[in-house]
Amino acid sequence: MNYNPNLILDNGAHKCSVTVDGKQQKVTIAPFDEMSITQANEIIRQVSDIMNAKYSFIQIIKLFDVSENLPYLSRYSQKALHITLKLLHQDELKEYVNSKAVEKENEKTKNSLVVLNIGCTSAGKTLGNLHAIIPQLYIKKFSSLTTIKESTNFSIDNCVNPIDRNLVNKEEFEVEFTLKTSEKVEEDVVSLIIEALQEIFDTIKSEVKSNDNSEEIWDIALTAGCERLKVNKDKTFDISNLVDFDDEDTVLETILLKGVREYSTKSISYRDKLTDEQLKMDIVRDIKENLFKITIDDIAYIIHDIQDFKNLTKDIYDQVYDAINKFSVKYDVIINYGQTICIKKRFDEINTKDIVSNIFGDKKQRKNNDFFSIDALISKAKLYFRNNEINNGQELIVVDGLGINQGQIQKGEEKKVAYNRVHAAMQQCNPDVIIYNTRLDSKDDYMIDVIQDLNDQGYKNRVYVIYGRADVVLENHCDEEGLDIEDLSDKELENFEEYIEKQYLNKELISLGNLEKSKVYLCDKPCKLSTKYSNEQFEKYTPKRILTNILEIYRENERTERIKLNKARIDQIINTLDNYSVFNNAYTMFKASIDGMIPMQYSLLRWNTLECGVRSLYYDGLGYASLYPSITIKNCFAKQFNRKEIKAVFGNDYDDILKVLLNNWTNLAHLIIVTFYKYEFAQLLNMRFNYELRTMRTITLTDERKHIVRNILNTCMENDDLDGPSAFRKLTQYVLSDIMY
């Protein structure tokens, strides 16, 4: 539903009049003699954009905060934001003002200790977390968490000893998850079909190079399109074994031919004369001769209105929704899209393993026709446990981050994607401790770069490394050396650790900036050594013991009091940053990085990757693939701090101040360069199905979208009164005035 606010004159005042939920509403803008009609119309324009961008209440509150404190960086006035709050969120506004909900939430969590686990896939992050948190007896009931598929795009927060949950003892747990909205799921389904149609074109382009049989080429391409749809359904929704459309090839062919025909001509006589067979052969021939210039982007707005496309979308959507129905029936709980559901269980209940598998998926059961899972429909998830042996019974949040090399990554972009994923996870949870998980028995191409980068951004004293597979390496070592692992002496175990340190760790430790030995651990993630053998020394390799050690080291170095910077020190910091051109250099770097985020070359950024990136930004995410605007701008800013003169002005507090500064600075920058442009990102998404929204019709939709996103990034920190470096300076000054470290 689109809103259409109008400016009216009523009782001597400019007012905003708009229909909301079928009711006409009016909100006063200003008295007639205190504001010009031009100003009032500008307020109406802003209100229209804010309302139609579909901001949440809390997003508008954050934008209001920027408008109030940094008006020169705000796209919307306080007046427009306040009017929108009154029109759409009146009840929430009253509750917010009365209860100070945000302050209470901050107060509730400020004493929580947050540990972020990062690392490559198969590094054992999840298995280690489970063994550290829950009783050994029940690990198997959560084993499906270790098999979450690579297309899963949410991390899991393990909240131990939560202060806002009534968990009596360690035998109980709660699982809380939020489902995607129906709009998001439908967008996912539509993308699957569009990708399948694109696969047909791509396959024809490939086949014509070596095949002269046009009919055969078409059949091969159509088969490839169907296979792409099947694979995508399997990867995204786990439903290919449940959904079998016998006429899928016919449906895809019909959609594609109708789209090309409708795009090519509106003439009835042509459409009657141009048979499907002739059109197919024309497409193959024109592609072979490099004359076919139509893309899926070009015909997407036509395809969206074809009934066969709508039917196929609905068929897949219904099958996806069927998993929700099955879950509701099996567990007697009503769930639906967009809802947050909380289920409390005991470890020893018969269906505990089933419910965890049905929520988070289970690779081992995916081929079972009776198995279902709602994991593809989840946007975020938390698990709550009670274990007073951990963190002295105080709240601890252990975040199980996504694998930094997860999924398909374009060659050459691996380290950039890993950087983006690590820092996106950091922005989302603001960790006190970061644990990098790796393995002794495999090469890790990411660890050195990731940890060096974390060291440079204020986390030098907060990063720990856990090497998994100590159990396998130790058993192999004992076999090779002829040692009895059951009766391994203290000296022999010490020799083993020295061997590991020499063979695996020393060179890397030097590269990591002499990371203290006390922050590097050998770990037996499955607790195989401590359960299989009687040697008590193996206990030190268990995830629980290691987590305890890490928390103890962290507490020894933790500040007892939080410090706020005074004005004199802030001025000193800003002057030093000015002297070394930090703001100019950082802004220049950011502008130069736009080519890397949004490359115009199609092979470097295809339509589907761009679509995912724009969708992420529209939903206020941090980004996708190479498109992470606020993380990129953070990196450009952070790189300017690594010089001794700047470190000197921060003194011994350099790391602590830098960590908080970069985190808060990036959150604020995200509001300015992403959240404020939600309306524009909505228009970019709608362009695919609404041709009237396009303004650059001589180029492809993908290129037009790229130009628009590049323009947003090029101008988001600039206006008539402010240039980019000055914006960076004002942001930094504001953040420094408010941080506690």
Describe the structure.
The chain has a nine-stranded mixed beta sheet, with helices on both faces. It has a three-stranded antiparallel beta sheet with strand order 1-2-3, covered by helices on one side. The longest helix has 26 residues, at 182-207. It has 29 helices and twelve strands. Helices cover 53% and strands 11% of the residues. The protein is α/β, with parallel strands linked by helices and 741 residues long. The chain is globular, with a radius of gyration of 28 Å. Helix 7 (182-207) packs antiparallel against helix 8, helix 21 runs antiparallel to helix 25 and helix 26 packs across helix 29. The relative contact order is 0.11. It folds into four domains: 6-107, no CATH class; 113-175 and 385-554, Rossmann fold (3-Layer(aba) Sandwich), CATH 3.40.50; 183-318, no CATH class; 563-740, no CATH class. The model has no long low-confidence stretch (mean pLDDT 88).
